[in-house]
């Protein structure tokens, strides 16, 4: 059943007992990825071809009048899209959209994500900012003014939640109070299964992150959906490249996947079956909160009938990267340079120095991590910091 689910790329049945993985599946975006039969090279080629035509159409769509400003706050030149809702939004509003969960708003970057024709088609079908706003703001009370580009995160968050999540201004008065109720109870079931497994109680501390996800998501009842995030200062695109010599958790091998957590957000990679040297090459995006917490990296072995097994974790201090990105945000320098590095030490879990590079105005860092709290395994990760002006 598990194999079928991996290949069909569909959502897992609720309460299937595969705990943390299921928990994350229901909240995080699924990315285009190579099928078993396809080589990585041909997958990239196919993606490139698809992406170029789709991107042209996407950029043409951005030029339409209503799409030249953020659908929620009116900031000019929005570079983010809610694929599920069909609106172009600014980076600040995109942070709020992302915190609604992907079951309500699936956010992609116009520039940084690879777009498929199907994705552009679905966006075109939704009609763009004007059409979507006519629907979701049909009954906007006169007393309520929309947020502006300089509005606080609280104002922005309040409006966006009322508009899309509670749908208070929707045409036809089709008010739905709690779109995510099903998803939320599914999460509770999944995580209850997970934590009822006594055998794993000694690993409780290892699962503390999962516990925290459950708590934060379990709380997602409508009246408690106050802003859980501060202001976002940017985005980080994390490419989980590969794992090397990972721990064995099944008979001879493991089915590893990686969870990335930053503050209260989390995303995860796909599962690679039967591999101790998995290659993911999978890019995942997270908003960077103002407080800049460490990026937590956790590796798990996917199990179908019991709780997923822990395969190590590590933390990455992303402050040097964000500081470099801020410093060079307005830089005109075009040639490559090295604005800094994270020197490898026992404390920071780095296998070698994580050099920060500036290439074409983008600040990046390659990280090689030694996994902690486990007998063996390293992980290669590339970080790409996207400043607020993107
Ligand atoms: Zn906005």
From TrEMBL:
Bias (Polar residues) ranges: 180-194
SMART domains registered for this protein in UniProt: ArfGap, C2
Basic and acidic residues: compositionally biased ranges: 195-204
Molecular function terms, GO-annotated: GTPase activator activity; phospholipid binding; zinc ion binding
Residue ranges constituting the Arf-GAP domain according to the UniProt record: 55-177
Annotated keywords: Calcium, GTPase activation, Metal-binding, Zinc, Zinc-finger
Region entry Disordered, spans: 180-210
PROSITE patterns on file: ARFGAP, C2
Annotated coiled-coil segments of the chain: none
InterPro entries xref list: ARF_GAP_AGD11/12/13 (IPR044518), ARFGAP/RecO (IPR037278), ArfGAP_dom (IPR001164), ArfGAP_dom_sf (IPR038508), C2_dom (IPR000008), C2_domain_sf (IPR035892)
Pfam families the UniProt entry points to: ArfGap, C2
Protein's UniProt keywords contain Zinc-finger: yes
Highest taxon of source: Eukaryota
Keyword Zinc-finger on entry: yes
Residue ranges occupied by any C2 domain in the UniProt entry: 217-332
Protein name, entry field: ADP-ribosylation factor GTPase-activating protein AGD11
């Amino acid at each position: 059943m598990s194999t079928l689910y991996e290949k069909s790329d569909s959502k897992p049945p609720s309460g299937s007992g595969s705990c943390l993985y299921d928990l994350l599946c229901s909240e995080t975006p699924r990315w285009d990825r190579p099928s078993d039969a396809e080589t990585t090279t041909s997958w990239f080629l196919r993606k490139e071809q698809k992406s170029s035509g789709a991107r042209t159409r996407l950029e043409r769509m951005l030029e339409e009048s209503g799409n030249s400003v953020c659908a929620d706050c009116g900031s000019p030149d929005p570079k983010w899209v809610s694929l599920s809702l069909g609106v172009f939004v600014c980076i600040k509003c995109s942070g709020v959209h992302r915190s609604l969960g992907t079951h309500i708003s699936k956010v992609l970057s116009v520039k940084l994500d690879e777009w498929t024709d199907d994705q552009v088609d679905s966006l075109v079908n939704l009609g763009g900012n004007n059409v979507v706003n006519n629907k979701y703001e049909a009954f906007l009370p006169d007393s309520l003014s929309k947020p502006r580009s300089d509005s606080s995160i609280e104002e922005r968050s309040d409006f966006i939640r009322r508009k899309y999540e509670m749908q208070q201004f929707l045409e036809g008065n089709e008010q739905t109070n709690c779109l995510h109720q099903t998803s939320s109870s599914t999460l509770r079931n999944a995580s209850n299964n997970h934590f009822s497994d006594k055998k794993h109680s000694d690993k409780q501390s290892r699962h503390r992150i999962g516990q925290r996800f459950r708590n934060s998501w379990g709380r997602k009842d409508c009246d408690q959906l106050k802003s859980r995030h501060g202001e976002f200062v940017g985005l980080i695109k994390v490419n989980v490249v590969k794992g090397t010599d990972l721990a064995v958790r099944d008979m001879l091998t493991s089915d590893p996947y990686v969870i990335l957590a930053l503050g209260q957000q989390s995303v995860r990679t796909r599962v690679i079956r039967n591999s101790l040297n998995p290659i993911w090459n999978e890019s995942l995006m997270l908003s960077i909160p103002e407080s800049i917490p460490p990026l937590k990296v956790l590796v798990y072995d996917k199990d179908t009938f019991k709780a997923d097994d822990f395969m190590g974790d590590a933390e990455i201090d992303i402050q040097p990267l964000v500081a470099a990105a801020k410093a060079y945000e307005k830089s005109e320098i075009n040639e490559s340079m090295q604005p800094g590095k994270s020197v490898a030490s026992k404390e920071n879990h780095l296998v070698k120095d994580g050099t920060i590079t500036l290439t074409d105005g983008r600040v990046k860092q390659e990280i090689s991590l030694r996994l902690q709290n486990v007998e063996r395994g390293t992980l290669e990760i590339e970080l790409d910091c996207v400043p607020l002006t993107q």
